[in-house]
Design a protein that fits this description.
The protein is built from twelve helices and 17 strands. It is of the alpha+beta class.
């Protein structure tokens, strides 16, 4: 009699402490100890209590999947639940006969489940779970979604265009401009060329910095006399979403094998935020041809590097785009930003209030009578009609608002920077 009462108490505790089916009472004692984000394999510990000795470790395994599906497990995709819908048939099929397909292996703590009070058995296991394959199954059954950090690149391309990229050489401590380095440093010129070619082969729109330099010089040349200012002008005129800085290390030997390393950093042009970085030496090759070595190095890392960049953009598509908003005055403007319009507020106050209502987050860098700068504005991924919201549309909406309060303005878009000019 005491043994039966003990079993009832333990089962009630399990039912109250976690979700259950008619057959199983799942444990909530589930912990992720590590995760390999290259292969998306998670090592997870769990314990469970069952009536029969052989069922305890299996119930602990099922408890892992129950937690992953419904409540999330800390350390796996920020603790987000993997299941976004519900399908009773899927649940019955999965927990009865399919869950083991996503278990690489598991071990029990101790030789066997421990017999505890009430005649029941407790097992603690450590299992390696195939997270990516599991999510693929949920997606296929329309009860899960790819998280941005795991989304296959072809899925990213379906939702957002790949970012346009310009590849530039690493400057180090030199006072030379990008253009000067490309003209005078053969090695870096070769490295940036091969990286650009690699991106192009992956379907990315690549802006050629040398062709852009020629175009700027034909149009009147650079407006400043120092390298950093000229580089900023080059980047801002590129129209690229991302610029990739490439450095090259090499070990070239005519008598022995040679190898190179590409060190790359991708940064969002509008904000300067780093999106991805990759580096690493190639295996040694029997050649001294730098072009071949750089091309080989690019093939080794570019696909994953582009995936990192695209993942950042996929997260942006989910969370909203980040832009820079700059407001200034036209030559001969009738108003300043301190002029009062539409309800006796200044133009600057009208703009700040509009940004506060229409942006998810923002940071105001500075405000004077002649200029107003928001160095970070995170805009929603979609507008109120559910349509994608980009920098151009955000700028157009602000111009339309200002027109409504009696202020004439124009908008210009340069990458993810929005320039509003008050007339």
């Amino acid at each position: 009699m005491k043994k039966s009462i003990g079993r009832i108490i333990l089962l009630c505790a399990l039912l109250l402490g976690g979700s259950a089916t008619a057959q199983d009472a799942y444990s909530t004692d589930v912990t992720c100890t590590s995760i390999d984000t290259d292969k998306w394999i998670a090592t997870i510990e769990a314990s469970a209590i069952a009536d029969k000795k052989k069922e305890a470790p299996l119930l602990a395994l099922k408890s892992i999947f129950n937690a992953l599906f419904h409540s999330g497990v800390a350390g796996v995709l920020d603790g987000r639940a993997l299941m976004t819908g519900n399908n009773d048939h899927y649940n019955r099929s999965f927990f009865s006969s399919r869950y083991h397909l996503y278990v690489i292996d598991y071990t029990e703590s101790g030789d066997k489940p421990q017999k505890i009070q009430g005649g029941m058995y407790k097992s603690r296991i450590t299992a390696r779970i195939q997270i990516k394959s599991l999510i693929q199954d949920l997606v296929d059954n329309k009860i899960g979604e790819w998280p941005p950090e795991m989304k296959p690149i072809e899925k990213i391309e379906e939702e957002i265009r790949l970012p346009s990229i310009m590849v530039v050489p690493y400057k180090g401590n030199t006072q030379l401009s990008y253009a000067d380095i490309l003209k005078n440093d053969f090695d870096l010129r070769m490295a940036t060329s091969q990286v650009s070619n690699g991106f192009a082969q992956e379907g990315v729109h690549v802006i050629n910095p040398e062709a852009l330099v020629d175009a700027i010089e034909r149009a009147g040349g650079f407006t400043a006399n120092d390298a950093d200012s000229n580089d900023r002008q080059l980047l801002m005129n590129s129209g690229a979403d991302v610029y990739v800085i490439v450095d090259l290390k090499k070990e070239i030997s005519p008598r022995q094998n040679s190898r190179v390393a590409l060190i790359m950093s991708a940064r969002e042009l509008a904000t300067g935020r780093e999106l991805a970085n990759r580096s690493g030496w190639t295996p040694s090759q029997r050649t001294t041809d730098l072009a071949k070595l750089c091309a080989y190095a690019a093939r080794l890392v570019l696909k994953d590097f582009l995936k990192d960049i695209s993942t950042a953009f996929a997260q942006r598509a989910e969370k909203g785009n980040t832009i820079v908003l700059r407001i200034g005055l036209a030559d001969g403007a009738l108003n300043t930003l301190e002029s009062r319009v539409g309800g006796n507020l200044t133009i600057a106050a009208q703009i700040r209030n509009w940004v506060r209502k229409n942006a998810k987050t923002y940071h105001l860098q500075g405000s004077v009578a002649e200029a107003l700068t928001f160095d970070t504005v995170q805009i929603p991924a979609k507008d109120t009609d559910g349509l994608p919201l980009d920098a151009a549309t955000f700028g157009d909406n602000l111009v339309y608002f200002l027109e409504g309060v009696g202020v004439t303005s124009t908008v210009r878009i340069d990458g993810n920077t929005v320039y509003i000019t008050i007339q």
